[in-house]
Amino acid sequence: MGEQRTEGFMRQQGKDRGWRPVPVHQVGVHLRLSFWHYLAGMLALGLLVFPVAWVAGGVSETISLSLGWAAGDPAIRRITNLLALAAIILVLGVVVNMQGRSLMSVVAPEQHLDLGMMARSAGTYALAFTPIVIMAVMSGQLSLGDWKVALALLPMMLVIVALQATAEEMVCRGYLAQGFQVLFGHAALAALPVALIFLALHDTGGWDVGWDRKTNILMISLALSWLTAQSGRLEPAMGVHFAHNLIVFTLAARPDYGLPAVSGFQEDLPDREFSINALLAQTLVYGAVCANYWFIGLRTGFVEGRWRERERPE
User: How many other β-carbons are positioned within 10 Å of the β-carbon of residue 127?
Assistant: First the structure.
């Protein structure tokens, strides 16, 4: 009944003027759902995550030990976390199904999953980020590390990171953003609590340390929320999230990540105290990456596929 209501309402809204799917962050508003509807879903999601994380931990540890990794290896913990996050897709599917909707209602409502759009977005972000990597190599911040082991793990990391990024986007820029859009009525305001929740999921340090990392996470979340509001669907944000995490894990991973990388870092980098100069520098760096992404992927229509729309005959 819930899915029929969704489809009927969306089609009614577009009657006699060309039916168009509803932007993903506006689904709750268009269906006139209450914030309590989403709050109940958030609580159910939180409760179901724990048994799923426990199972993911057992699976990853069993596989890792069978491959000869030592018990307690940091890589096992990292892979466990990634698997648990990836499994959230199944948990979220159960939650939205219980509420009478399909999983695509938090990705691209009334549309099909566009993996090509996700791949184009990932490639565009990787290209936009390339100047930062080149400058880091030229300045000596990055050097060649254990690239053979990192390359051997790359196929597994491609799959796990893709699922993890997809799951986090479905929860944060999909389900949570819909709920907070209902509560606040504006995409920019809804992006703020989503960013704080996104930070809580990724940062394990104290509130008074590691502000360079915290600022990084907050800026990424806000940029992904903006991208989702602009595109009306999640695949572009999924692609950016996937490419960013893959770059971090393979090129700039610190030893505490537990995964082999080509960064060449021999020891963990200490969390720096808050510095306005560091904040401005970081903002400029990510601003440059976002500008590159916008120019290469959004302005040209490459990511969203608008070039194909223009070529269609009237």
Answer: 14
144-151 own/partner pairs: CB under 8 Å, 24+ apart: 144/262, 144/264, 145/260, 145/261, 145/262, 145/263, 145/264, 145/265, 146/260, 146/261, 146/262, 147/262, 149/260, 150/250, 150/259, 150/260, 150/261, 150/262
Tokens describing residue 252: 């700039």
CB neighbours of residue 155 within 10 Å: 9
Q: Specify whether the CB–CB gap between 170 and 103 falls below 8 A.
A: yes
What angle separates helix 235-251 from helix 147-169, to the nearest 10 degrees?
150
> Mind listing the pLDDT tens digit for each residue in 18-71?
346 789 999 999 989 999 999 999 998 888 877 777 776 677 667 666 766 666
pLDDT band for 294, please (50, 70, 90 cuts): very high
CB contact at 8 A, 242 and 161: yes
Query: 202 near 218, Cβ under 8 Å?
Result: no
pLDDT at 160: 81
**With left for phi above 0 and alpha for psi between -120 and 50, is residue 274 left, alpha or beta?**
beta
Whether residue 133 has pLDDT greater than 50: yes
Q: Are 221 and 202 in contact (CB under 8 A)?
A: no
Closest residue by Cα to residue 3 from 135, 99, 88: 99
Distance CA 304, CA 314 (A): 19
Residue 171 CA to residue 188 CA, distance in Å, equals 17
How many beta carbons lie within 10 A of that of residue 18, not counting itself? 6
